[in-house]
């Protein structure tokens, strides 16, 4: 019998109205990278939270390093050598990088907390991980990708034996992902066990030894990665074969609905000009920091516009805040759904209702409960949101179902332009297809769709046209038929290459 670092037998866990895990078996060996896969809501995060002491199992057995463990807490799990990087960032934004890394484990000198010692050790950890970052930087001022790297540094600073990574690359650049994979290979060579949860299945071939699949809270199968294919993995995850990962429909291109001229906002939106037509999907591609998200925020009124003009159906708009854009029919599903897209402590019904009160209230300002219920039920049914009931908190949903609510609240409006910023980040293959189908539905209805994505296959697979950004500017517009990954990357680095050429002269 093999000696496992982690072993679970017959583990179950229920929440009100939902059986998250049903008699699941799990094991992890030393020096192994195990991919734990499944759709959103399959039970992956719940299982890992049991192993890391966040949740208590309802039944079953849990062994860590050969010893059965009861009443596991996060602190006890950490002391035993288990560390977890959560899918949703778990940082204190008002604290510095080094303070977050050592939070709860503060270094002392002669009984007094030593900032100097923690800064020095944090610098060493960041350097070892090849992360360029000032340990004294306030975490709330960092980009999402940099915050993700702080989470990784925090987990690895505990010198753990078992490391759980829940969607660690969801907000990382290509270079940061390469650096992370090097770290994973190093940890594996040191004999540590790694559980890797990701919906980016193409990543698995670079690091994974074995695959385990959950579906609807139950164990489905496990196999060596070398002995399977991505198609088989997807079929096991969803219980059926997904024939088309990027469904597209043909729609007649209508009239020009949105026109943007010489838009400037902050440092990362410079003289941006483009058109958007009814019944088309336009993708915005580029590297991290190219100005894609900043452009969408400026259009939505979330960031102040310094100069430029925005026309909707030929009418010049004056957008100073999001409500201005919403009233005109321009809506945004933001990049950071937890921070900007949801009220996680409020119910699903409340989240769908809040931006649509103008449609739900009578002339006395009272919300029509029947209209609210109908809107909520229609949204949940159309998007196939998995939940016990519409009264549960939005924060209790899986990442994919949270994203559906963010999108769904806008689809309840008579919107003319729908902007998606990283709409499929952190959601599974089947849920991604549902989002693409929603985008196609909007396209078919004559609505203009603008979307930002860091997933190159997604940009190439869904877009009718592609705008490539670099250094805050649109460097190229590509038609779907002419676009390739190499061509997009060429224009995504255009200004960087110009600078390199100038320095070489």
UniProtKB/TrEMBL annotation:
Alphabetized InterPro entries for the sequence: AAA+_ATPase (IPR003593), ABC_carbohydrate_import_ATPase (IPR050107), ABC_transporter-like_ATP-bd (IPR003439), ABC_transporter-like_CS (IPR017871), P-loop_NTPase (IPR027417)
GO MF annotations in UniProt: ATP binding; ATP hydrolysis activity
Keywords: ATP-binding, Cell membrane, Membrane, Nucleotide-binding, Repeat, Sugar transport, Translocase, Transport
A Gene Ontology biological process term: monosaccharide transmembrane transport
Subcellular location: Cell inner membrane; Cell membrane
Protein name: Monosaccharide ABC transporter ATP-binding protein, CUT2 family
Main location class: membrane
Protein's membrane topology: Peripheral membrane protein
GO annotations of cellular component type: plasma membrane
Pfam families on file: ABC_tran
Limits of the ABC transporter domain: 6-241, 249-496
Record carries keyword Membrane: yes
PANTHER family noted in UniProt: CARBOHYDRATE TRANSPORT ATP-BINDING PROTEIN MG119-RELATED (PTHR43790), D-ALLOSE IMPORT ATP-BINDING PROTEIN ALSA-RELATED (PTHR43790:SF3)
PROSITE patterns: ABC_TRANSPORTER_1 (PS00211), ABC_TRANSPORTER_2 (PS50893)
């Amino acid at each position: 019998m093999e000696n496992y670092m982690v072993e679970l037998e017959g583990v179950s866990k229920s929440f009100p109205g939902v059986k998250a895990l049903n008699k699941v078996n799990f094991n992890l060996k030393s020096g192994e990278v195990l991919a734990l896969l499944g759709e959103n809501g399959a039970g992956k995060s719940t299982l890992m939270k049991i192993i890391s002491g966040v949740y208590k199992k309802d039944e079953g057995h849990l062994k860590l390093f050969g010893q059965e463990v009861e009443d596991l807490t996060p602190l006890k799990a950490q002391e035993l050598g288990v560390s977890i990087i959560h899918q949703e960032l778990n940082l204190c934004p008002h604290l510095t990088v080094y303070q977050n890394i050592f939070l709860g484990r503060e270094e002392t000198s002669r009984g007094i907390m030593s900032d100097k010692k923690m800064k020095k050790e944090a610098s060493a950890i960041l350097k070892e991980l090849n992360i360029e970052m000032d340990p004294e930087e306030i975490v709330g001022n960092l980009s999402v990708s940099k915050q993700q790297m702080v989470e990784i540094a925090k987990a690895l600073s505990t010198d753990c034996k078992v490391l759980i990574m829940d969607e660690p690359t969801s907000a990382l650049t290509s270079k940061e992902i390469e650096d992370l994979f090097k770290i994973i290979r190093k940890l594996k060579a040191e004999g540590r066990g790694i559980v890797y949860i990701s919906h980016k299945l193409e990543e698995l071939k670079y690091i994974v030894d074995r695959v385990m699949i959950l579906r609807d809270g139950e164990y489905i199968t496990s196999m060596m990665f070398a002995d399977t294919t991505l198609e088989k993995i997807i079929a096991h995850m969803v219980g059926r074969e997904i024939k088309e990962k990027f469904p597209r429909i043909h729609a007649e291109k209508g009239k020009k609905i949105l026109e943007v001229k010489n838009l400037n906002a902050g440092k990362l939106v410079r003289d941006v000009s483009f058109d958007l037509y009814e019944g088309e999907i336009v993708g915005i591609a580029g590297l991290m920091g190219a100005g894609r998200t900043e452009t969408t925020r400026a259009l939505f009124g979330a960031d102040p516009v310094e100069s430029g003009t925005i026309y909707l159906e030929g009418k010049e708009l004056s957008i100073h805040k999001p409500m201005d854009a919403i009233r005109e029919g321009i809506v945004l599903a933001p990049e950071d759904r937890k921070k900007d897209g949801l009220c996680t402590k409020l119910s699903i019904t409340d989240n769908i209702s809040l931006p649509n009160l103008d449609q739900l209230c009578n002339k006395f300002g009272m919300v029509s409960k029947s209209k609210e219920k109908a809107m909520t039920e229609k949204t949940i049914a159309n998007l196939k949101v998995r939940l016990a009931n519409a009264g549960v908190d939005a924060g209790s949903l899986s990442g994919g179902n949270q994203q559906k609510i963010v999108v769904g609240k806008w689809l309840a409006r008579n919107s003319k332009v729908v902007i998606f910023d990283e709409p499929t980040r952190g959601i599974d293959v089947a849920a991604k297809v549902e989002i693409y189908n929603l985008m196609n539905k909007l396209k078919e209805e004559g609505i203009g769709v603008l979307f930002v994505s860091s997933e190159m296959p997604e940009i190439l697979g869904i877009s009718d046209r592609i705008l490539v950004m670099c250094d805050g500017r649109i460097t190229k517009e590509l038609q779907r038929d002419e676009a390739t990954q190499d061509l997009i990357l060429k224009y995504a680095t255009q200004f960087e290459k110009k600078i390199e050429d100038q320095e070489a002269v």
